What we know:
With 762 residues, chain A is of the alpha+beta class. In chain B, helix 2 (90-98) packs across helix 5 (144-159).
Amino acid sequence: MASILEESGFNPGADLKIVGTNPIKHDGLDKVMGRAKFGADAFLPGMLVGKILRSPHAHANIKSIDTSKAEALPGVKAVITSSDFPEKKAGTPPGDMTRNVMAREKALYDGHPVAAIAATSEKIAKKALKLIEVDYEILPHVIDPVEAMKPDAPILHDYLRTKGVEGAEDKQTNVTERMVTQLGDVDAGFEEADVIVERSYDSKPMHQGYIEPQGCIADYSEDGQIEVWCCTQAPFVYRDRLSAILDIDCNKINVQQSELGGGFGGKTGFYGEPLAIMLSKKASRAVKIVLSRIEVFRGTGPVSGTSYSIKMGCKKDGTITAASAEMIFQAGPYAGSMYFNAPNAMFTRYDLKNVDITAYEVLSNRQKVASFRAPCVPQIVFGVEGVVDEMARKIEMDPIDFRLKNACEDGHTTIYGDTWGPIGFIETLKQAKETDHYKTPVKEGEGRGISTGFWFNRGGETAASLNLAPDGTVTIATGTADVAGSRISISMMAAEELGIPVDQVRVKMVDTNSLGFNRVTAGSRTTFSVGMVIVDSARKCIAELRRRAAEIWDVPEDGVIFEDGMVRPASANVGDFEPMSIADICKKTTMSHGAISGHTEMNVTGAGPGFAVNIVDVKVDEKTGRTDVTRYTVVQDVGKAIHPDQVVGQIQGGAIQGVGWALNEEYIYGDDGRLQNAGFLDYRMPVASDVPMVDTVMVEVPNPAHPFGLRGVGEVPVVPTMAAVGNAIGDAIGIRPTSLPMSPPKVLDIIEEAKAEGVYKG
Amino acid sequence: MAKRSHITLSVNGDEYETLCEPDQSLVDVLRNELELTGTKEGCSTGDCGACSIRLDGDLVCSCLVLGVEAEGKEIETIEGMAPSPDELHPLQTKFLEINGLQCGICTPGILVAAKALLEENPNPTETEIRFWLAGNLCRCTGYDKIIRSVQAAAEEMRKG
């Protein structure tokens, strides 16, 4: 832990020269030239093609697997099943992980891998897959999380007992855990309320929808050293988990991340990598596995579907007096939904005194849940902000004023125990009110929705090195992933601190052998955390530059200062010395003293919370139920935008992902438990002609724990989106939808209902 | 096993000969036989546009074309987009300047598709750009900066 950043050195009046500008990102050129290497873009000599056989059944005992015919096919070099992996106890983290990548006793979802093949060509591999004979005993399945909680539901794991419930020790169940979060006295709070609104909501699984299917190469050498190339948000986490499920030392597994073709949380856990390793071990050749799009949908994690109810009460003046919720989160066949984020974040931004939240995580026969931007929060905020909006309407208060009335201020202590420093929620609300969008009346026949959202933002374990080359230029080694442009932001922060042009800095995402552990790139942590570590590393370099200058000038070290990229005498009293640049000192001293480097590892703390307000206008077609978003404005507190264009890009991208989730995206299962829409034609993400431009207002309430004041920005944009679209649809047609996605058939039903009730606007 | 087919094709002005399976897609031939990996494969069903290329001038999804169908054809891919080693196409420049790319996986297909648009229509409206690029999925950007990059490149190209 470096003490140098205990005081971050944040200076609100700093004259920043690079932070806050928009240089072209260094990785951009390779990407527009088609030269950037993504997961599927690498080749090794003698490389084999790996293919995965997947269960067509949502729930089935695997009685036997006969691979002999596949093994006998010329060109097949290895066939693996679960028996090739070390035994790990079911219900433990490694036990779940190894079973998710390769089904063991049972296949637990449509698409669950049961065997894998490595062959000399794709054609042979595909032919060999068909020669594997799996004897399944089909079992009743359950996908809907509410159904999965019922006493007579098919049980996925006979060992599972619900945590957090007394007397559950001897009951088989699909519920992994019950979590209760309470504050104050909700009964008393509801007593105080003049208006109470209670609604039930649900949402379906949606997929992260990255355009790059997972691709990896594993190369197992006979001495047990394994090289893995893959697209991942978490090279170190992959390595450590591969170590845990394969019983191989961490230092023998070297993971090199490729360029990442989108992740959004979906590439925080591995799928093909352990299979490629075991195939490579068996075949003694490198093995490449690239998933097809169908496999991405059938075999990798969508988010949690949910079913929940929200109850909130307020006084006539708008003060919220109590809030309660009961929520069910669908996890797939193994725990891991991160559903605990929801109780901690769903109401957080409003200063509530009385809260009572019960949440359940429930297993079901669908793909194992994976992270997505602000895991488990946006689909719940869809309901929370619906209720908030309804309360505001009932007391005839402006929706932004209602939220301002209840907004948290600096110094708020949250339901999860943290006390915040300066926050920007009130400022985002105020600025939202001042936008041209909000001041412009809603167009005839359209509806407008307002919503707000919060995300914690994260820090965590981060290690990086900053090296000064003999010519004074800078190379940086990081172990986090670059999901959308962190390399340039990191370069900019280093350049700012060192007082050099950003073009003199280059960041490389190195392999896991080259640095200490770095936590997954997720939760809006990377630019913040690596920024802390890199500024610290730069300060170590500056300290050494001053030491060397003092030696060259033969003056005391405190007689030397560093400013604007130059080492100078602190005053005329020190002596009359020509200032030296970083390059001057590096050229003079690298041979005699060795290179100058700064290396820092920290468990970074101090992430500042982020808030956003969305304003959305929609037009709903009465005949088809189709919703078009006609105008979209996001106001978000970003702390300090290091590279404003990239921050705007994060906000716009998150908003449009949320529009897809709001209007179309869902996993649809047949009665047989098989996924019915495993392709981009039927799982319809927004295309360019579906959406408008997204206007953004960046509020900058600095986070003083960071040298430049930044807050994470990646998660917040999607948090309020579906709620804002839902509130806008409600405004347009008279009844606010409560089920995600708000697809045309559902909206048509609501239009009919609104007409029947005489509340239809349109 | 059936023998592989011999094909001759021109990619970005260079002639290539290769063998491919009769049922092998052109994107697979480009990527895995010729190792021209600039063209990306996102779905294999013509829905995402990551594999967009020009085939005798036509904008196509190379996952929906067989390698054998490319026999004797002229193909343009992202690798051939920059006019020379030290000069970028205006679309490439504007995508860099305006941040029209984040992760970059859809970028080659979008650039190839946008180039085809601007050759056909040098002054497209926002709506025309949005509908032309409706076959190219991007999950990172929300399309805003992509559209603006194409608009800016079109303006630059109209100036000549």
